[in-house]
Amino acid sequence: MTDRKTELAANLTLVEERISAACAGAGRKREEVTLIVVTKTYPASDVRLLAELGVRHVAENRDQEAAPKAAECADLPLIWHFVGQLQTNKVRSVSSYADVVQSVDRKRLVDALSRAAVGAGRELGVLIQVALDADSGERGARGGVGPDGVERLAESVTEAEGLRLDGLMTVAPLAGPYEGRPRAAFDRLMEISSRLRVAHPAANMVSAGMSSDLEEAVAAGATHVRVGTAVLGVRPRLR
């Protein structure tokens, strides 16, 4: 086993132990939580090693990096998540490889994704990104729609050809009432999710929590956690 594969295996074991302990503490089954490894800034060779180690869900946040990486790993049994803020001019590219787009926060993006998905003959899973630092009608500092805009956007997704409403995503806010309170933020997301599932029962995916706060996300009820640094190491600085 290569040194890098050994390192990744050890890190994955530690993350797995954290998720398992968090599930046990919350009275949840381990299989209720899916690990998504965020591979941004790391090479396709790492993605291959992760796949060999049993990882099935990977995430990227920049199309210019993700597209060639996904192409290089097209032979692997992976589910690709796009988690970054997405401009409409990148939608056609993203829709060619992403299985789930987690950062949908405006109708214009829904419409663009729908056209691209239909053009590519694919069905894209969509998560609405909820900004818990956004006022009514505004977008958050890190993307996302304010809580009051979720239901309207959900209707747009369900009416759009080629798209499937899978649920909600959030990033713990760096400002506003939830600053420094990830558990409270994730509890709020679960409340919004419960309300959404009344009208859209299949939209039961809740993506929340990263390397620093995955325990809080699991305790709140997240179904997916997005972990990068704890698996791959401290990220190289982008040039």
Can you put this structure into words, describing what you see?
The protein has helices at 3-26, 44-52, 63-72, 91-97, 107-120, 150-159, 182-199, 214-220, 229-232, and strands spanning 34-38, 57-60, 79-82, 100-104, 124-129, 163-169, 205-207, 224-227. The chain is an alpha/beta fold and 239 residues long. An eight-stranded parallel β-sheet has the order 7-6-5-4-3-2-1-8. Helix 1 runs parallel beside helix 8 (214-220), helix 3 (63-72) runs parallel beside helix 4 (91-97) and helix 4 crosses helix 5 (107-120).
Please indicate the count of domains.
Answer: 1
Strand order of the largest sheet: 7-6-5-4-3-2-1-8
Helix content: 40-55%
Overall shape: it is globular
Q: Helix and strand succession?
A: HEHEHEHEHEHEHEHEH
Question: How many E strands?
Answer: 8
As residue ranges, the low-confidence spans are: none
- What class, by secondary structure content? alpha/beta
CATH architecture: Alpha-Beta Barrel
CATH topology: TIM Barrel
Under CATH at level 1, the class stands as: Alpha Beta
Mean pLDDT, nearest integer? 95
Annotated CATH homologous superfamily: Alanine racemase
Largest sheet: 8 strands, parallel
The fraction of residues assigned to DSSP E strands is 15-25%
Head-to-tail CA distance between termini:
31 Å
H/I helix tally = 9
Cofactor: pyridoxal 5'-phosphate
Protein name: Pyridoxal phosphate homeostasis protein
Family: Belongs to the pyridoxal phosphate-binding protein YggS/PROSC family.
Organism: Streptomyces malaysiensis subsp. samsunensis
